[in-house]
Amino acid sequence: MAKILIIDTAVEVAGICLTNGTEILGQETNATLKEQAGWLQPAIKRLFERAGLPISAIDAVAVSAGPGSYTGLRVSMSSAKGLCYALSKPLICMNTLKIMAIAAIRQSMPGSLFCPMIDARRMEVFTALYDNQLVELVSPQSMVLEAESFTPWLLKSPVIFFGNGAEKYKD
After folding, report:
1. Looking at the whole model, is its pTM more than 0.85?
2. CA atoms of 163 and 95, how far apart (whole Å)
3. Which of 115, 93, 113 is nearest to 167 (CA)?
4. Rounded distance, CA 61 to CA 66, Å?
């Protein structure tokens, strides 16, 4: 199985994970948004030390490529690209909204639609809409929320809104 280092600092809680196929070898999180830049590299070092592996043992690095926190994305992307370059390993980029949808689909009822939202300040969010097979119904985009933004979809089936931007659409 491929050993993959996964890095995500696009949202408020940063996380890293080392996997061997579907097995999680270790993980760390940091809930302090302003400390992610200083946290990431030491956390990666600790992760590999606890796993008893050299960092060169990885087969690839996967990174959340956004949308999300501009600073967080720069931190994770530069670290991931640096590791891939130094180790001659491939870089796997994933859309943050799709990652969020995958997690929600695994925990929710079938027949629902899934709408991850990341706060983009004021009444704007980064969002997309997926069915329970991860088919993209609304492509990832920034959106100024209005009361009717999702009415056509809500008339068809239940929609699960989640993420730190979902609170804006609550009313």
Report:
1. yes
2. 14
3. 115
4. 15
